Amino acid sequence: MRPPLPRLHAITDERIARRADLDDIARELAIGGGSDLAFHARGRELTGREHFDLAVQLSNSQTVRLFVNDRLDVALAVPTAGVQLGHGSLPVSAARALNPLWWIGKSVHDLAEADAARAEGADYLVVGPVFATATHPGRSPLGLAKLQQIAAAAGEIPVIAIGGITADGVREVRSSGAYGVAAIRAFWDDAEPAAAARRMREWMS
Does a structural domain hold residue 33? Predict the structure, then answer.
């Protein structure tokens, strides 16, 4: 039986993956987030070896579960609780065949993509960008109304809100139907990562 899906998802990118203080920040985030926190090994421009090393590095926590984005080969090589698939990733069925116990999520950007991911059998949806974000400067934010629409259409499938998420915005997305939140900067760049994760954990629970 799978443990519950974490509500907080701290996602890396190439910059975070190569930070010298990655271990220290991950340790602080684990203190604040506990079992409600997941680390996502992600970095589209990372080599396969870099992605593997990042996943190994993030898997050291005793409480935080590891998710791997896109790279199913890396997910097979490191103890992994779940995977997140993007638009160009392999289908949900392929990931399910590799490990039926994984949480398998899909990144979606509108209601049509959410409906398709649900039909494909995704276990959870990462929906965004909800707010404007420097990570995707060319993509218009969905806003809270569309997030609420997608969350309602998803039914029992958990929706993780992403894009411009800050600690102050957690309550808004929670009230709009989000099961959880995902972010890069709000976790990894906070001056007090343990406090940031703890605050988000309290507001999402």
Answer: yes
Locate 162 and state its tokens.
Answer: 């992403």
Contact 56, 74 (CB under 8 A): no
The reply to whether 3 falls in a domain is no
CA-based nearest residue to 54, from 70, 65, 38, 43: 43
pTM, 2 dp? 0.96
Render pLDDT for 6-40 as a digit per residue (tens, 0 to 9). 999 999 999 999 999 999 999 999 999 999 999 99
- CATH number at 166 reads 3.20.20.70
**CA-CA distance, 30 to 60, in Å (whole number)?**
10
Q: How many domains does the chain have?
A: 1
- Residue 1 counted as domain residue: no
DSSP 68-92: EES-HHHHHHS--SEEEE-TTSPPH
Q: Which domain holds residue 34?
A: 8-204
CA 155 → CA 28, 118, 141, 179, distances in Å? 34, 9, 22, 11
